[in-house]
Specification:
By secondary structure, the protein is of the alpha/beta class. It is about 40% helix and about 20% strand. Bound molecules: 1,6-di-O-phosphono-alpha-D-glucopyranose. The site of 1,6-di-O-phosphono-alpha-D-glucopyranose has 14 residues, from loops. GO terms for molecular function: magnesium ion binding; phosphoacetylglucosamine mutase activity.
């Protein structure tokens, strides 16, 4: 908004005239009186909340519609400052003046006076978050409040029915800054553009932004580096501090991997599997809360690369399907569910809402205010998600929204389940086309007899699982292996330091044994055999 919105204010103010012979006062806890008298007050509080936010450089102002312990026929409204505190005293007087302006003309004049005296830059974007209690007069008064916000062009977020302390908490909440590894690629442009919209609530700190430096793209950074090396990009070592979340895009920003350092500065990765678990759980929770349990099927699609712990965790809760690598395969399978959540472990994925699921969301009649809030959150998620394809930016917002709703840090998200130690290895072979697979790439059918020999190795590892498949994008064969423990090759039992055991990097053995076998069986030159292959 660049200029004073006279016509909007006049238009909306006329819809919410002040009742004559009433004097309002912003008292102990805001305005509070008979609900039937409050329509104009709520409209004007909407205008004032927008002015307060503009005065504070667009920081989020809270508005709570409640009369607390008063009889049900009363209602009220109070403003909450950006740190979740009560409105600053001097503004209480402004609120009282504004509410008592008799006519639309008087009201416009008081608004202008406030702008002048408070030196408010009207061009700033105002951010306001609103909530109400369960009083029957609440929805009508919130509608009046929203008219005030609309007249001022404020960005409003209606949290529906919430307790007063939750509204204070939400108003004071700002996500901690998120470090974004842009892989020195095009994702930087998108992150920069998005930052202009979200920085006031989710500050983004882009790193690895050398888009013009030759050789920098995906080099020791980006989602693939983090996922395959299971470590922090070296460029972020001096950037990230314990507890802070970070995420990596890949070179074209369609993959997303999260990570954080714990309080001992140990690296922890939150990959596509962890994203799928977070998202699928949240969607199931919203659907249940909205009273839609059993109305549609929520399913998850993974590939053979999904960590065994994630598959176990998810399949105890929802239908889970395994398909061949490639988002095209996952996307197709996800279309079979009402809400299909698909993510490859490498961080590539999204959520699909079928047309019938969307029409259920549109037509469903919630039977309680709480159900209505869950429903509107689920509808908002369907808007937030880029359903055409996995999108690192949209997925990042999705993750952040869920973490904010759940009040989760990286650590709490991570503890949904513990990854099995795992390793992904590339094997350069003479001809990768001799490798053919079945069972969603989990077993080899060619070269003949090789799968049998792999099985002989895998069974020596507790909870061992491994597979070999030719890449569809690089001239290599990929080997994935995971296991519960790290037994010695002779099968003798071993004692483990539990903490060490769950650091994934400690687990190269099964993967390197299989890689060695694949290399030898496909005619690899023994003089060039990588020394880590067993
Ligand atoms: C592409 C596909 C992904 C696939 C990845 C690796 O990713 O879109 O679905 O997981 O290649 O495939 P492969 O293991 O066959 O080489 P991107 O990000 O490179 O487009």
């Amino acid at each position: 908004m660049s200029s004073f919105p006279t016509s909007e204010l006049v238009k909306f103010s006329d819809l919410h005239p002040k009742p004559s012979n009433v004097t309002f006062s912003y008292g102990t806890a805001g305005f509070r009186t008979k609900a039937s008298l409050l329509d104009s007050v709520l409209f004007r509080v909407g205008v004032l909340a927008a002015l307060r936010s503009k005065r504070l450089d667009g920081k989020t102002i809270g508005v709570m519609v409640t009369a607390s312990h008063n009889p049900e026929a009363d209602n009220g409204v109070k403003l909450v400052d950006p740190r979740g505190e009560m409105l600053e005293n001097s503004w209480e007087t402004l609120a009282t003046n504004l509410s008592n302006a008799e006519t639309t003309g008087d009201f416009i004049q008081v608004v202008k006076n406030i702008i002048n005296h408070q030196k408010i830059d009207i061009s700033k974007t105002a951010n306001v978050i609103i909530a109400r209690d369960t009083r029957p007069s609440g929805p009508g008064l919130v509608a009046a409040l929203e008219d005030g916000l609309r007249a001022m062009g404020a960005v409003a977020r209606n949290e529906g029915v919430k307790t007063t302390p939750i509204l204070h908490y939400l108003a004071g909440k700002k996500a901690p800054p998120l470090v974004v590894d842009c892989a020195n690629g095009v994702g930087f442009f998108a992150a920069k553009a998005m930052g202009e919209y979200v920085n006031s609530v989710l500050p983004l700190i882009p790193h690895n932004i050398a888009i013009n430096a030759l050789g920098a793209l995906n080099n020791a950074c980006g989602a693939d580096y983090v996922k395959t090396s299971q470590r922090l990009p070296p460029s972020l070592v001096s950037v990230l501090h314990p507890g802070q979340r970070a995420c990596s895009f890949d070179g074209d920003a369609d993959r997303l991997i999260y990570f954080y350092l714990d309080d001992r500065s140990q690296f922890h990765m939150l990959d596509g599997d962890k994203i799928a678990a977070l998202v699928a759980n949240f969607i199931a929770e919203l659907a249940k809360g909205a009273g839609l349990d059993g109305k549609f099927e929520i399913g998850v699609v993974q590939t053979a690369y999904a960590n065994g712990s994630s598959t176990k965790y998810l399949s105890e809760r929802l239908p889970v399907q395994c398909v061949k690598t490639g988002v095209k395969n996952l996307h197709h399978a996800a279309e079979g569910y009402s809400i299909g959540v698909y993510f490859e472990a490498n961080g590539h994925g999204t959520v699909l809402f079928s047309p019938s699921a969307l029409s259920i969301l549109e037509t469903h009649q919630p039977s309680t205010p709480a159900q209505s809030t869950y429903l509107s959150n689920l509808i908002a998620l369907s808007d937030l998600i880029n359903q055409t394809v996995g999108d690192a930016l949209s997925d990042m917002l999705l993750v952040e929204v869920i973490l904010a709703h759940k009040g989760y840090s990286g650590l709490e998200w991570d503890s949904i389940y513990s990854d099995l130690p795992n390793r992904l290895v590339k094997v350069v072979v003479k001809d990768r086309n001799i490798f053919e697979t079945e069972d969603a790439e989990r077993r080899l059918t060619s070269p003949p007899g090789l799968q049998q020999r792999l099985d002989d190795i895998i069974r020596k590892y507790d909870g061992g699982r491994a597979f070999v498949r030719p890449s569809g994008t690089e001239d290599v064969v990929r080997v994935y292996a995971e296991a519960t423990l790290r037994p010695q090759a002779d099968g003798k039992s071993q004692t483990f330091d539990l903490e060490i055991m769950f650091i994934p990097n400690i687990f190269p053995e099964l993967a390197f044994r299989i890689a060695g076998l694949v290399y030898d069986e496909s005619g690899g030159d023994s003089s060039k055999r990588p020394k880590e292959f067993l």
